[in-house]
């Protein structure tokens, strides 16, 4: 019986015709050539942390579990196999006295899965993972293994330059090739001072420019049905390290943010009318705290409560309008929303399909408890975000197609032209790519 692949949230699944676990670029290349010859499509999955069907295939599904580990290091760079989980990369880098400059909060993702879907953290000066990539090794649709790097002057083939493929493939959705290795820019390990503080949403809306410009990494969560946000300000520190105690770490990251929050979501799922009161209790329980620790320990967090998510990237200058309209919509429609809305920011990116391409960007992420989906909530917020020129996260739920996406990505047509040249037979296609790329 064929193996069933399911994502973390449980909203996407597929039974492919065949599953393989290659351990080298050469084995990936062989699998791609054999699949193409038999008329099968190919996708490499990650760890299933996308909410969309971006990784699914009914043909040959490649698992990344044997493509792991750091391959090579140099002055300010590290090359790792594409299936390496971010958690493993963080630990290996730390042992070498190195670190990524910025990252998101989920570490279960593989390196390739994270960059191909445009995973990002929050940063005033440093962008998402794709912006820290300096090189990629890919297997193309004809089985050729190529390496591209930032500033590369080579030509992959007629009409395809190394630089164009690098800029397109960093957030490539797996449509241009199977990524088998990633080279990141790294730097010496550093400490971050993390300050958590409750603030009224109205106060944040009145001081967005100041609060974003004054902090290297700003992340805040608004609790619907309240005026309360939890702000997280992370800034570099000379030390000394002052990590939370084991008990405080368990209390904040395991009990409060997962165990207790999961229980409140369960109660809210059974009794929706209680959600505003539950959120008010949660808001009242928030407290300020400050500690200093190794950067990746500050950047990352644990997410055990299963949810569905939609996230849109809007021009940074429109963040205040996006939040006000979202707040007013929730109140007007009287939806009962348990999960907080998360807000982050990044500088402009030069990766063609990065959600931050060409503009300073703010992200508005809406979540719903997995057992109680609310499509109308996502649809209503999506209408606001698209009216503001928003770009949906490639790995999170949305309803946009190629017609819309071509209007918000200046290099969208160039990406599709490059895809036509590299994969004219659509070896790497699937239903999701047919929708978003046409």
Annotate the secondary structure layout.
Elements lengths: L4 E2 L6 E2 L3 E3 L4 H13 L4 E3 L15 E3 L7 E5 L2 E5 L4 H10 L2 E2 L11 H6 L16 E7 L5 E5 L5 E3 L2 E2 H8 L8 E8 L1 E2 L2 E10 H6 L1 H6 L3 E6 L5 E10 L8 H25 L4 H11 L3 E6 H5 L7 E9 L3 H15 L7 E6 L14 E9 L5 H13 L3 E2 L9 H7 L3 H11 L8 H7 L1
Parallel strand pairs: 3-5, 4-5
Antiparallel strand pairs: 1-2, 6-7, 7-13, 8-14, 9-10, 9-13, 11-12, 15-17, 15-18, 16-17, 16-20, 19-21, 19-22, 20-21
Structure description:
33% of the residues lie in helices and 25% in strands. The chain is α+β, with helices and mostly antiparallel strands. The mean pLDDT is 96. The two termini are 33 Å apart. α10 runs antiparallel to α11.
Classify the beta-strand content into a percent band. Answer: 25-35%
Ends distance: 33 Å
Task: Determine the fraction of residues in helical runs and give it as a percent range.
Answer: 25-40%
The helix tally amounts to 14
Radius of gyration: 21 Å
Largest sheet: 8 strands, antiparallel
Structural class: alpha+beta
Order of adjacent strands in the largest pleated sheet: 18-15-17-16-20-21-19-22
């Amino acid at each position: 019986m064929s193996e069933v692949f399911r994502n973390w949230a449980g909203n996407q699944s597929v039974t492919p015709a065949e599953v393989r676990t290659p351990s080298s670029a050469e084995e990936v290349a062989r699998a791609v050539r054999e699949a193409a010859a038999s008329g099968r499509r190919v996708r490499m999955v990650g760890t299933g942390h996308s909410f969309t069907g971006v990784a699914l295939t009914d043909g040959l599904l490649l698992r990344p579990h044997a493509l792991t580990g750091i391959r090579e290091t140099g002055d300010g760079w590290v090359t790792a196999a594409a299936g390496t989980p971010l958690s493993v990369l963080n630990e290996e880098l730390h042992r070498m006295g190195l670190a990524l400059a910025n990252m998101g909060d989920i570490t279960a993702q593989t390196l390739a899965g994270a960059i191909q879907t445009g995973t990002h953290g929050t940063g005033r000066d440093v962008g998402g993972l794709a912006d820290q990539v300096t090189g990629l090794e890919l297997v193309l649709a004809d089985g050729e293994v190529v390496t591209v790097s930032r500033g590369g002057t080579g030509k992959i083939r007629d009409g395809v330059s190394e630089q164009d493929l690098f800029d397109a493939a960093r957030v490539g959705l797996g449509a241009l090739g199977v990524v088998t290795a990633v080279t990141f820019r790294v730097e010496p390990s550093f400490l971050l001072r993390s300050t958590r503080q409750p603030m009224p949403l109205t106060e944040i809306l009145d001081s967005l420019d100041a609060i974003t410009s004054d902090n290297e990494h700003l992340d805040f969560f608004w609790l619907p049905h309240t005026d309360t946000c939890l702000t997280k300000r992370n800034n570099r520190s000379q030390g000394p390290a002052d990590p939370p105690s084991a008990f405080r770490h368990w209390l904040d990251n395991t009990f409060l943010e997962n165990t207790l929050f999961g229980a409140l979501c369960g109660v809210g799922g059974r009794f929706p009318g209680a959600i505003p009161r539950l959120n008010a209790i949660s808001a009242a329980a928030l407290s300020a705290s400050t500690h200093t620790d190794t950067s990746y320990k500050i950047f990352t967090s644990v997410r055990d409560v299963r949810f569905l998510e939609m996230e849109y990237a809007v021009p940074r200058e429109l963040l205040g309008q996006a939040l006000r309209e979202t707040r007013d919509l929730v109140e007007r429609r009287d939806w009962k929303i348990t999960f907080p809305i998360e807000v982050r920011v990044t500088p402009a990116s030069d990766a063609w399909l990065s959600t931050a391409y060409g503009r300073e960007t703010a992200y508005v992420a809406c979540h719903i408890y997995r057992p109680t989906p609310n499509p109308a909530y996502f649809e209503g917020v999506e209408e606001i975000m698209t009216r503001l020129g928003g770009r949906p996260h490639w790995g999170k739920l949305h309803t946009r197609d190629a017609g819309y996406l071509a209007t918000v990505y200046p290099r969208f047509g160039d990406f599709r032209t490059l895809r036509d040249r590299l994969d004219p037979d659509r070896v790497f296609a699937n239903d999701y790519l047919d929708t978003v790329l046409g």
